[in-house]
Structures are given as C-alpha cells and as structure tokens.
Amino acid sequence: MDIPALILLLVICAIGAHFVLKWWWPIIKERKNIMPEQMIERALQAPVKGAQREGSKFGSPIKTLLIIGVNANLLYWWLWFSLHSFLVLWLGLGYLAAGFLVQHVVKVPVTSELAHLKIWDRFWLRIFYAWFWPVYAPYISRRS
Fold it and tell me: Which of 45, 61, 76, 126 is buried most, with the most CB atoms less than 10 Å from its CB?
C-alpha cells in the first residue's frame, strides 16, 4: 500500500470510530448500576433525544427551522451571485460587517439566548441577526 491509501484508510477508520463512540457514549456516560438491557434501550433512545435537542436549540422548533432556513438560503444565494461578481461578494461582506457592528452596539441577540449554544450555533444565530440589521439600526439612536 502506498502512503495516500494508508492515509485514506486512517481517515475512514477515524470517522467510523467517531460514529461508534458517538452512539455508545450515552451508555458509557450515564452508566450507573443498570442492566445490559437498559443500557441498550438508552443507547437506542439517545439519538432521538439528541435530535429533539438539536431541533429546538434556538428556542422552539419553528424558530430553529426559520433561523436555519433563512441563513442557509441567504448564504447560498449570496455566494452563488458572488461567483459571478466580486462586487457582490464585497458588498455582502460589508453588509454583514455592518450587521455585526449594529448587533454589538444594540446588544442583539441577548446573552441568555446564547448561553446554552455551542460556538458554531452562536455564530449561526449572529449571522441570522446580521442579515436583518436595518431593523435594529433605529434602536442605536434610542440607546442614548
């Protein structure tokens, strides 16, 4: 075997190990004095519970779907148009930078909304609010 094939095999094994550990980790983590049948039952229920948590990470399931859907669509279309024009890319980056600046000044989203989120989810939520910064811009003058 040559080196690239070994690296590919290592990557495939690492991905497989990741998914096996991800499936069995709830059993290992929450193991107390339970029977093997209960351990298997918990392992089978863990993906469902994880999906329920993921489905309502931004509050309600509807709000989560809205945030993910709007961000994904706006980013997709912005990047698609950016392939045809660098001006659109830079205008979009400027627009998002202005959105992040307005968020910082107005303090949107609130800290309690970000407390339970992972770093990537916090960034995703901030991008969502950055798209709609003109809505929050009038509040800058009211803060004084």
Answer: 126
